[in-house]
Each structure stands twice: as structure tokens, then as C-alpha cells.
Amino acid sequence: MDTPATDHQGQNNRRGSAAGILEPDPGMPASTWRLRSDAWEYLRFAMKRIALGNEDKEALAADSELRRSLRALETVEMYWAGFGQRYVAAIREMLEQGDYHMALERIGKVVNRLRGDTVPDTTRDDFADDSENSDLLVDTDPRPRFEVLIVDESTPADRDGLRTEGLRLRSSADDFIYEYVIVPSADDAVAAVLTNPNILACVVRPGFSERSRQPLSRDLKSSIEMARNLVSPESASARTPLASIQRVLRLADTLAALRPEMDLYLMAGAHIEGLSGALTHRFRRVFRREDKLELHLTLLRRVSHLYDTPFFSAVQEHARRPVGVFHALPIARGGSVVGSKWIKDLLDFYGLNLLLAETSATSGGLDSLLAPVHTLKKAQELAARAYGAKHTFFVTNGTSTANKIVHQALLSPNDVVLVDRNCHKSHHHAVVLTGARPAYLEAYPRNEFAFYGAVPLSRIKQLLLDYRAQGRLDEVQLVTLTNCTFDGIVYDPERVMAECLAIKPDLVFLWDEAWFAFATFHPVTRRRTAMWAATHLKERMGTRAHQIAYREQQKRLFDEQGNPAPDEVWLQERLIPAPDVKIRVYATQSTHKTLTALRQGSMIHVHDDEWVREAEEPFHEAYMTHTSTSPNYQILTSLDIGRRQVELEGYELVQRQLDLATSLSQAIARHPLLRRTFRVLTAHDLVPQENREVGRPMPLRDGLASMWEAWTTDEFVVDPSRITIEISRTGVDGDTFKHDLLMDRYGIQVNKTSRNTVLFMTNIGTSRSAIAYLVEVLVKLAQRFEDESSQLDPEIAAKVDDTPMPPLPDFSSFADGYATDGQLPDGDMRAAFFKGQRRTSVEHVGHEELRERVASGEKPVSAGFVTPYPPGFPVLVPGQVISPDVLDFMAVLDTREIHGYDPRKGYRVLRGS
């Protein structure tokens, strides 16, 4: 028998899911893609029991969840095309009349469509002659479809006429089809774009009202208000003095802030010639009401631009062409494989298309990655549009290389770079390559879980002020930070950059967003990405309000003689940069880690106001230095088509990813056995209290509005798609839990563990079934741990090793001879690194002997990098003094992988140190 889709949390969760649009369960996320599908699934489940005779009419009358589901759908279906509110009303009428079989048939058609199953062709004839029930028509056209939002106060007859006209305009030659979602108010428009990811375009008619008459949930009301607050009143008033146009522009700006991938059009009645000039800032085009065909063609044309994958199409065309290969690459066209007697299994496994697409050619439309002028150039321009960058560059050998490219483009020998000490090892190696001097920034530690968080802004500001006090601020060129960290700690890049630029106006920023590529495609997470922050900061600095605030703050920061106020004042103030400051921001992303791309597919995004004058030529030289002349075309095509995916369905995929992670955490928190064995770490565990303002431990549990508030105000937030589970009560360490139990026994892959934690991550490919399987496995493991614990002798159980980890070691210092001066922390890591490459300059010292040397007062110096996994960053770098804290930490590590350290030989130490 069919059962409704749930998240293994029992009847309470099903009630919350069905009623969520009106009465959200406080423990569940308020995503209407999920509330809608769950409500329809439950209707089918309940109706099937009744229609097939398993339940009676009295049971139907007593089923409060069924009634709540109907009420919820009567609201939410306004925001989706295809069925509509009258479809739900008709089902309610069938139930009241006892026509259960017909109601089950109608509900089944919706569920089949939501599941992506085939809907019988006969459904289009059900109401073909009934104009009063045009909402009930079910379209079975198999072409890719999208939805178009129309904002206008209209009658049911007007809405029916629009839908009929839309069907009439369809042509068999069209590559795509669309349906209308018609709402009467600005509130409903915002609700629609927040809840319906299928909307790719919006047509605004000036006749809309402001407020919704729908019974909206508290969370959705709060989200609407927060969305309205995204738009500064002066942004609309600066463009037009007309109040009627200002309200249109405010709505357009709000919708664009929420879903920048969505195109906006204005349909007006009169004087559109004058309006179009005033509205080109936001609307792609302005139409008269009678220009329905022109609007139709424009909608299809625009989506075709989003759908376009120029390089992927070029590779497909190359694979279809007969080609004679008198070039490198014997595998091209399958030449060395198809006729082979011994490696045909390669062809069987990967298929012929992979071999047909392999080539060394850069002509015939394929283009060169090192000097693109055609299809690859266009693909990168489309990626820049998608990610909100001014320029985007594809990288085929991972973000490690992307980081080295950016460092080499921006830094020269002896420049100072402020760098997060627990950043990825590629940044440390990049410093060696460039000859820059790193000044390490310490992130706040979470010693009880053996990982670092992020670097508080106060520490960055203080270090900049220290350089200013020593007269060396001009040497600081770059700030490099990881956003978000491996464990999911996310910065507020706009605030960091604004306050740092207020101290040093020509700083450049590199944000390592290896794990954060997905964030661009959700209205909340987008606000914490480097490219959005750069764009928004630049817009904000151009406002009159910013200019006034800057002038007022300068009076507090400097006296009449131009002397700066004490550091305490600069640290307490939320610093405001000069209005004319140049924004120079770079972001590197491991696209393959969180979006659709083959392994090592990465991107570099650029928003640099000094690109042409300062950065373009050095960047291209660095790009040439590190980029292969034989890039993998399959990686490049995956980046191209992955961009198409996120522009057309990224919002839906990311919202689902976040919600499934919340479901996992909620399942663990509510299950009696799981919560005795595991503990989900929240923002209260992962972020110090002084770095957060919103009090909720997991804001998304309380709905999108709560998450929105936290991500707007807090210095650090936690990526909801990362669930860190504390496993101390299991009696096993994280490495054993990961390898011996999860992976070897149940085939569950996780990326990171610490001594007492395991990190689970959802991504855009995670399914509800996968979450269900993980919960099932955790229950089995929890039962096993309880059974084993109950059989232990109490005295033995009390002796289980619960020794706390020693504190995570801070960066000690660069040794004399490598430190630049005694006042500031930067040093010459490059010189130490190359000295460490000479065998005569290095000795190997065992752990215990090194302890004795340190205890006797020696200051041994590391000859290389030592990077344990976890925590995944160097605890020693070349030229660093080896401190007791580092040795204490290394002594208790039980990880299987430590780069740069051989326990048989010991540490590599520079001689004479």
C-alpha cells in the first residue's frame, strides 16, 4: 500500500508538512516545494484508503490532517501553474459529495506529475469544454517547461483568457513551453518567487495591489517583509519621481534581489515610450498589452539563452562529425580502443561518446582554454553572468591551482598577505611560489571538537592597525580567507571587506569558496558570497546615505590635525569605507564539490575595478603558468552544462539540499535512540556567542525567515547543508566510525571526521531516500553501541578513554632569520622552504627527541609543511618555530594520513636551528 512521503519522524512530521503553509511545525523547514508535494502525497494516501474501502466516511470526516492538507493547498496552489486553486476546490467538492474514486483520480494526476511520471493523455480532455474549470487542465507536452509569473489584479475570466491565449500561441517548433502563474499583489509575487522555483520570468502589470489576501504562514509573512527590506527606498526614487512607477520599481528590485536569474518585463497600457527609458534599469523590455505574440517570442528566446551551452554543443558537434586524426591523442575517436583485443572493457564501461569527444584540437569550434575566442569564451561569459562576476575563468585541475593562479597574479616577492592559518594548503604553497610574506590570522578554535572556526573581524582589523602603527601598512596587499570553511562556518564578506577597506583602501581580497559554489543560487545564502558582496558593497557606496555616514564617521576616527583615534575606537566602530574606494575581489570555487561538474572542474570569479589597469595582464600570465596546454574537454563541458542547470533550476536544488540537511538533524534530535547516542552540533556549539546575534541554534529549523535574519545580522553563520554529529558516546573515534562502520559496512561516504565528530553534507544530488537510508544506518549503529555498552563491565566502561584533545595549536612564530621583524608576524617562508629542499640543510628528528630539545630551551625550525587530515591544514610551515603546543597536538592525533611527517624518520628540521 502507498504511504505518504515522510522524513521518518512519525505522524507529527506529516501533520506539520501538510499544514505548513498555514500552521508550520516549528521543527520543520517551511519550503513549499516540500509542503506542497507532501500534502498531495498525503491526500492520495488517505483517499486511496477510503476509495478502496479500507476506511469509511466517518474516518474521512475525522481526518484532520486531510482537511489541513486541503486548506494548505488551497493557498499554495495559487503560486504554481498546471492545476491551480480551483482544482483543489473541485477535489474538496468531490469529497463532500462522496465521489471518492473521482477525487482519487484527480489527486493521482497531480502526484504523478509532481513525481515526474507520465500523465495519461486523456487528462487534457477532462475539462476541454468547461471554461469555468480551465485551471484543471493538465498539460502533457513532454518539452522542457518553465513558468511565467504575471502580477496583476485580475478576474477569473481574465486569468482564463490569459491561459487560453498562452496555449494558442504555442508552436510545435518551440523548444520550450511555459505556463502562467497569475497573482494579484506584490506580496503574492514575492511569495511566488520564494516558493516556486519553476518561475523563470515575471511580467508586471501596474494594476497590482500591495498586500495579499491569502492566509499565509507566519514564516512566509516574515520572509516577505525581509524581502521588501532588501530594497533601499532611494534606489527607486532616484530613478523616477512618479509614485506609481516607484511602486513598480520597488517590486521589480525586490524580485530581482531574490531571484536575479529571473527576467522581468513590464506590460503597460499607455505612454510606454516614455516609461521604457525610465525603467530599463530593471525591466528587460516594456510591452503594450496587445503585444502578446512579441512577449511570447521574447520569453522563449530568453530561456534559450539560459539553456545555451556553447562549448558543450561544440563538443557534441565534433563527436558527430567524421574526422581524420593526424594529431596527438591515440584515444581520440576511439582509435586505439575500438579495434583493440584487450581494452574493449574501457569502451563498454564509458561508452563510445566519451571517446568520440576526446580530441587535442582547438579548432572547428572547440576553442583554446588558454586563448579562447569562440565557444569557450562565450561559455565563460555565461558563467560570469550566472555567478554575478565581471569575469569568470574555467580551471580543469581544481581549486588548488585556481588559488595559485590568483596569488601569483596579485602578489610580488615581499608583499604581505594576511592569510587564514587554517586555510587550504594550496594557499600556503602559493605563498612559497610568489615569495610573498604571510602574516597568519588565527581563527577561533573549537578545541572540544578539534577544529577551527573562522577569523573574527576584530583580529583582522587589529592586525591591519598594527601594520599601520609600524608604518608598514603599504606592504599589505591581499587578504585571503576561506568562505565557507570545511566545517561550514560562513563569513559576512561584505562587512569584512568594507571594514578592512576603511583602514587600507587599496586592499585586494581572495575568498576561497571551494565548498560554497552552490550558495549563489539561493536568495539567503547568496548574500554571503564574494561576488554578491562585491556588487552590493559597490552599489551601497554610491548611495547618498553611505556618503553622509562616511563623513560623519571620519570626524570620530580622526582629529582636526588628521591623526587617527586610538585603536579601541577603530575596533568598536563598524567602519565605513570611502565612497570612491576600488572594489577588488576574487573568488575561487570547486564547482565539482557542490554543483554538477566532473572532478577538478573549478572556476575563478573576478570583480576587480582595476582589472584592465592593474590585473588583467598579470592574471593571464599566471593563468598560462598553471593551466595545462592539454585541458580535459570533458571537464570543460561539465562546467558549461552545470552552469545551465543552476541558472534554470539552481534555486530548487539548493533549497532542497538545505531542507534535507535539516530533516537529517531533526531526525537525530527527535529519535529517542539516536539522541542518546549522537548529538547534532548547532550554531551555539560552532560559533562563539560574541560572533552571533540571532539566538536560535539552527535558524532554518524555524523557517526561512529565521535563517534570513541570522544570515543578515550575524558575523558568522553555519551552512545548514553541513551537519556535524558529535559521537563521543559511541566509544569509537571519528576515523573508525568513518572507515570501518559507515564506509566499509554500509557504503556511506563522508568527507571529514575529527576525533569525536563526523561531518555529513547534503548536496544538490542528495535525495530523500538517501537521507532515509542514513537515518536507518545510524539507528542500527546506535543500537549496536547500546548493546555493546550494556555488556561491558561497569569498571571497564568507566575506563574508556575520554582524554580531551589538547588545544589546537596556534601559529607560533617564524624563526629568527625568517621573521621580517620582531613587531609583526609575517616572515619569509619561501627562503625556509627552499633551504628545506637541500638535504644537507635538513635533519630528521623523532618525536620524543624533539620534545626533549624543546624542553631544554631549543627552538627547532620546521623544514617543511606538516598537514594532518583531519584537521586538514598545516600545523607546521617552513620556517616556523616548533612549539610544545604543536608537539602535544601531534602526539595524540589518531588520524591515518599526515602529509609531510614520517613517523619512522620523525620531523624534518632545519640544521642549526
Automatic annotation (TrEMBL):
Residues forming coiled coils: none
Keyword Cytoplasm attributed: no
Requisite cofactors: pyridoxal 5'-phosphate
Organism: Kocuria gwangalliensis
Record has Transferase as a keyword: yes
Keywords linked to the UniProt accession: Aminotransferase, Transferase
Stored Gene3D superfamilies: Orn/Lys/Arg decarboxylase, C-terminal domain, Type I PLP-dependent aspartate aminotransferase-like (Major domain)
Source domain of life: Bacteria
Protein name: Decarboxylase
One Pfam family matching this protein: OKR_DC_1
Domain (Orn/Lys/Arg decarboxylases family 1 pyridoxal-P attachment site) ranges: 309-534, 585-768
Biased composition range(s): Polar residues: 1-15
Disordered: annotated span: 1-27
